[in-house]
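Final paragraph of the annual report: two paired records, presented back to back.
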Amino acid sequence: MRQRRLWVILVLALVSGSAAAYLALAYLRDRTPRLMAAEAPHVQVAVAARDLPLGTILAPADIHMIDWLGEAVPPGYLRNAQDAVGRGLISSVKANEMLLETRLAPRGAGGGLSVTIPDGQRAVSVRVDDVIGVAGFVLPGTHVDVVVTLPPQPVLDQKVSLSQMVLQNVQVLAAGQVVQQDAQGKPITVSVITLLVSPKDAETLILASNEGKIQLALRNTLDLADIRTSGASVRTLLPGQARSSAEAPARPRAPAPEAVGTVVEAYKGGVRTLIKF
């Protein structure tokens, strides 16, 4: 009899424990989504509906609204699409990338390249070829140095070609192609690089492109060092010839003629003496 009671108590304990576990699990399943919904606030943010290049004036079809869970929203985000419609992009964005105030030009400023130019800066375009454009690696956002090679200039008694780096760490705003006419009137495609420079550097760049041939030297974007060089010429290009000309023996100078003055011949005690004045 006693053993039967023990079995009854054990069965009742297992049944009540299973019931309690089931009720607790059901409670948690019902409660957890509510807690998560209450603890995870979300906001609507505007993102790009597709890849958008720099200078694009945003249209409603370019903007998509999504739910952003949590409170860690980047500053300057847009709560609705109307805050972005009609404004120009000052940098390119990728599809589903968030549209921020720092990526957009002020309303009414328009689009295109002009909205990307900071105050006090200028955009200057120069014609280049594949070699000058560093074989197509000069892209918007990269930085270059500008080297100019001038035609032969008179140096002492010779005419020497000179090459000098005139601008350093210049940002590339745009790189593209335009169609122009050659000397026979036939259309040709030429590459154009647009650089962001100060007004003073704009004068230097325009003068260099008109007076000589410019070359772009691509540099590491993280390299901000400003290195001054003395330039290069044919004499420095061939140092051996420069040394040989420097070490050439100088021509012997002819002795300077003695100045001719007045000579007086005098005799004293039969000794002849010449006195010069």
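The closing record of the year follows.
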Amino acid sequence: MTIGDRTRLESHIVLDGQLTLGADCTVAPFASLGGPPQDLKYKGEPTGVAIGARNQVKEYVTISRGTVGGGGMTRIGDDNLLMAYTHIAHDCQIGSRIVFANAATLAGHVEVGDDATVGAACGVHQFVRIAKHAFIGGYSTITKDALPWVLTSGDRAVSHGINIVGLKRKGYPRRPSTRSSGVT
């Protein structure tokens, strides 16, 4: 187990297995990081969790270690906010600067790109990919890949158009550059 400099571990947390927790993270009470995967194929093989720097892991968050069949490692990037009751299952590959609202739940082998937002009480099916900058509305069931810069929500979620608010917050201009390409 490796814990980075200035990482704050509050009371009543569980750290287990081959876990790397980066610098400047905060782990709130009752979180459980690195526990065995909830996968019937798992037979105690040495697998792990790698969590980057400056992550905020709130109360009751669970992050499971990987499985041999999924590459053996659950990975989480930097600068993420995992709100209360978030679950990151085995072999998930999570980017950076992502917000997981309360009770966001990822099944195994899910990929989430940088700067995405996963709304409260969402269930994300195994092997789904959530693209960079995707926005998943609260209480959604995600069974298919979610597109970048698109609002996706609903029971058996569907795309609802471009996430204009997200584009503005990231500082993208209202209209793309209209420079001449030399073609007439």
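Helices lie at 164-169. This concludes the annual technical report; the extension proposal builds directly on these records.
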